[in-house]
């Protein structure tokens, strides 16, 4: 079966976007993993499907799968690309705010221009039971045992689970080991995206993320939201923060508990193509 797709990226976090507004898409894990392969497939961090709305108040629903085939509840860079894709398809006028349903709930997107998107990401969730993260109650800091070593983290959900390590200078060797270890830590029973954030000032962060289901990525939108939210919750950053990731910068705005968090950043088109089922013999 041939599947048409659009290749996109948000600050270097790359995606395949598939039009399933007719609701007909049915992909199994094996096909997603084959498409994700950067040698024998298309290559992507996540696959995003644009589907008919599943509730009365959203314009569309979008599905999210990591390159390893695992599902996710939210994708910050991805939903900006879905918004730009809808705009290019004539389904989202510039400046109009539209609700898009995701597996973890609705977000609201607005095209500032053809390549910059601002997203109401909802309120960061610190309740361990909703992250999910194994802890008796909410605190600003948790200490995990990683291979016998104590590691201090913040834990938060943006519709997907995040472990945030705040370090002044994370050695790349330590980070290379800690990223996968935190992603697979048993206290995150559904896994976690592991962010390593350096505070350059109260308005400026540098972030590296080892993503659940995708590994180290050029950028992680929910990771940028999570890192800012953890530091804001500790009172260590202002309500408007620039987050620099290897692939680009995102702008996060959150005044605090009870308020919604906004993320603004780019969305870029790369190419369009057709996935040919590798089993086809023609
Ligand atoms: N790996 C994530 C999903 C993609 C998140 C990231 N690409 C973003 O921009 O937020 C997870 O399994 O929760």
UniProtKB/TrEMBL annotation:
<feature type="binding site">
    <location>
        <begin position="211"/>
        <end position="212"/>
    </location>
    <ligand>
        <name>substrate</name>
    </ligand>
</feature>
<feature type="site" description="Important for dimerization">
    <location>
        <position position="271"/>
    </location>
</feature>
<feature type="active site" description="Proton acceptor">
    <location>
        <position position="220"/>
    </location>
</feature>
<protein>
    <recommendedName>
        <fullName>Diaminopimelate epimerase</fullName>
        <ecNumber>5.1.1.7</ecNumber>
    </recommendedName>
</protein>
<feature type="binding site">
    <location>
        <position position="160"/>
    </location>
    <ligand>
        <name>substrate</name>
    </ligand>
</feature>
<feature type="active site" description="Proton donor">
    <location>
        <position position="75"/>
    </location>
</feature>
<dbReference type="InterPro" id="IPR018510">
    <property type="entry name" value="DAP_epimerase_AS"/>
</dbReference>
<feature type="binding site">
    <location>
        <position position="193"/>
    </location>
    <ligand>
        <name>substrate</name>
    </ligand>
</feature>
<dbReference type="GO" id="GO:0008837">
    <property type="term" value="F:diaminopimelate epimerase activity"/>
</dbReference>
<comment type="function">
    <text>Catalyzes the stereoinversion of LL-2,6-diaminopimelate (L,L-DAP) to meso-diaminopimelate (meso-DAP), a precursor of L-lysine and an essential component of the bacterial peptidoglycan.</text>
</comment>
<dbReference type="InterPro" id="IPR001653">
    <property type="entry name" value="DAP_epimerase_DapF"/>
</dbReference>
<feature type="binding site">
    <location>
        <begin position="76"/>
        <end position="77"/>
    </location>
    <ligand>
        <name>substrate</name>
    </ligand>
</feature>
<feature type="binding site">
    <location>
        <position position="13"/>
    </location>
    <ligand>
        <name>substrate</name>
    </ligand>
</feature>
<dbReference type="GO" id="GO:0005829">
    <property type="term" value="C:cytosol"/>
</dbReference>
<dbReference type="GO" id="GO:0009089">
    <property type="term" value="P:lysine biosynthetic process via diaminopimelate"/>
</dbReference>
<feature type="binding site">
    <location>
        <position position="46"/>
    </location>
    <ligand>
        <name>substrate</name>
    </ligand>
</feature>
<feature type="site" description="Could be important to modulate the pK values of the two catalytic cysteine residues">
    <location>
        <position position="162"/>
    </location>
</feature>
<keyword id="KW-0413">Isomerase</keyword>
<feature type="binding site">
    <location>
        <begin position="221"/>
        <end position="222"/>
    </location>
    <ligand>
        <name>substrate</name>
    </ligand>
</feature>
<keyword id="KW-0963">Cytoplasm</keyword>
<keyword id="KW-0028">Amino-acid biosynthesis</keyword>
<keyword id="KW-0457">Lysine biosynthesis</keyword>
<feature type="site" description="Could be important to modulate the pK values of the two catalytic cysteine residues">
    <location>
        <position position="211"/>
    </location>
</feature>
<feature type="binding site">
    <location>
        <position position="66"/>
    </location>
    <ligand>
        <name>substrate</name>
    </ligand>
</feature>
<comment type="pathway">
    <text>Amino-acid biosynthesis; L-lysine biosynthesis via DAP pathway; DL-2,6-diaminopimelate from LL-2,6-diaminopimelate: step 1/1.</text>
</comment>
<comment type="similarity">
    <text>Belongs to the diaminopimelate epimerase family.</text>
</comment>
<comment type="subunit">
    <text>Homodimer.</text>
</comment>
<dbReference type="Pfam" id="PF01678">
    <property type="entry name" value="DAP_epimerase"/>
</dbReference>
<feature type="active site">
    <location>
        <position position="75"/>
    </location>
</feature>
